Amino acid sequence: MAPQETNCRCPPWLAYSAMVQIVELPQHRMLAFIEACNRSRYRPSREEAHAWHSSPTPRKGHFVPGPNSMGAGVLRIADMLSATFDVLGPQGERAPDESVLDHLIRIRWVKDERGLTLTQLGLAMLAEARHVKRAEESTVIVLETTDRFAYARLVGQIASIGSALLVDPYFRLRELETILDNTEVNRVLISKQYKGSSEARAELRTALNAVAAVVDMEIRATASSTLHDRILVSDEGPVYMLGASLNTVGVANTVFMRIPDSAAAALRAQAEDLWDAADAVGSASLVAPTEPSALAEIRAAGDQSVSVTQA
After folding, report:
1. pLDDT at residue 260, as a whole number
2. What is the spatial distance between Cα 36 and Cα 233, in angstroms, rounded to a whole number?
3. Averaged pLDDT of the chain
4. Considering the entire predicted model, what is its pTM?
C-alpha cells in the first residue's frame, strides 16, 4: 500500500527499544567518586569512600528522645530484649548486606592497594555509564504549528549534524533548495509510491543538473513499501527521527529526536539497504567552491524557475 503524505505514526521499534543498563546508579556514583579523587592523584581509603557514599549530602535533623519520653522507654525495652536473646544464645543471624564498595572490589572494578583506584575494567564501566547517560539525555525538539520558526529550527538542527543521509518519502524541490543552501546533507532517499512522485523526481533531477559542479548531492528513489519513516542518518554518529516530512513541518505538530543507540544500528542498516537498492534520480559533484546559495545561478539567469521536465 502506498504511503500517504499525512501519515505520521510512531514506528513499532520505538515502543520496544530500550537500553540495557549494565552499570547501576550506586555503582556509577562510587566509580565517579573514586575517579574524581584519582584525577587529583589522591587515592581515597575505603573508609573515606564509604563515608561519602553513605552520606553524600548533609544529614537531616531527627528526633532525639529525652530520658523520660516514650521513645526512651522503647529504646530501653529493645535493650532488654537484646540482652535476653544474648542469654538464650544465638539462634542464627543474618549476614550484613555487602556494601557498594566491597561489591566493586569483589567484581574487580576497583582495587585497594595503598588506597582506592579504578581498574581498567572499572574505567571501562564508568565510560559505559556515561555513554548511556548521554544517550538517555538525547534532546527531543517539538515542532509546533504555532511556532513560525519551526522549519528554521529544524534546518538548524540538520545543519549541526554534518554530512548525512536524509530519508524522506515526500522530499520536493523546495526542500532541496533549503537543504543544499544550509546543510551538509549529501544523500536523499525518496519514495516513488505516491501521487505526484514522477513530477517531484523530474523537478529534483532538473535542479541537480542545473547546479552540477557546484554542489555535492545524490538523490535516489525507491518503490519499496517499507519506506515510511523519516530519518536522518549521520555519516559518523547518531541517527535521528523526524515525525513528519519536511514539507509538513509547521503545518502539523511533530518532533525531531535522536534515536537510542540500541535502535539506531537497525535503522541505519535498513536505510543503507534501501539506498543501495534504489534508483538514481540525479546527482551533482562538487568540483568548485560552493556558492552562498547553491541555486543562486538559476535565479540569477534571468530569474527563471527550474523547468519541470521528464528525463
Report:
1. 81
2. 35
3. 76
4. 0.52
For 281-296, what is the mean pLDDT? 58
Q: Is 26 exposed, middle or buried (0-12, 13-18, 19+ CB in 10 A)?
A: middle
- DSSP, collapsed to helix, strand or coil, labels residue 99 as coil
User: Can you tell me the distance from the alpha carbon of 185 to that of 161, in angstroms, rounded to the nearest whole number?
Assistant: 9
**CA distance linking residue 45 with residue 115, whole number of Å:** 5
Helices of type H across the chain: 12-16, 25-39, 46-54, 70-88, 100-106, 120-136, 150-161, 173-182, 197-210, 261-277, 296-300
- For Cα atoms 47, 122, 259, give the angle at the middle one, nearest 5 degrees: 125
Check whether 232 has a pLDDT greater than 90: yes
Q: For the CA atoms of the chain, what is the radius of gyration? A: 31
| 3-class SS of residue 231 | strand
**Residue among 162, 135, 157 nearest 254 (CA):** 157
CA distances from 182 to 150, 160, 208, 292 (A): 15, 10, 16, 9
Note the helical H segments in 241-295.
261-277
Q: Quickly tell me which residue has 520536493 as its cell.
A: 172
The whole-number average pLDDT for the span 112-137 is: 79
Give the separation between CA 144 and CA 126, rounded to whole angstroms.
38
Angle separating helix axes 173-182 and 150-161, nearest 10 degrees: 50
Region 240-249: mean pLDDT is 87
Residue of 272 and 127 predicted with greater confidence: 272
Does residue 200 contact residue 190 with C-beta atoms inside 8 Å? yes
Q: CB–CB of 138/14 below 8 Å? A: no
The per-type count for the chain, helices as H runs and strands as E runs, is: 11, 10
pLDDT tens digits for 113-123? 989 999 888 88
Cα dist from 40 to 30, 33, 114, 215, whole Å: 16, 12, 16, 50
pLDDT of residue 289: 46
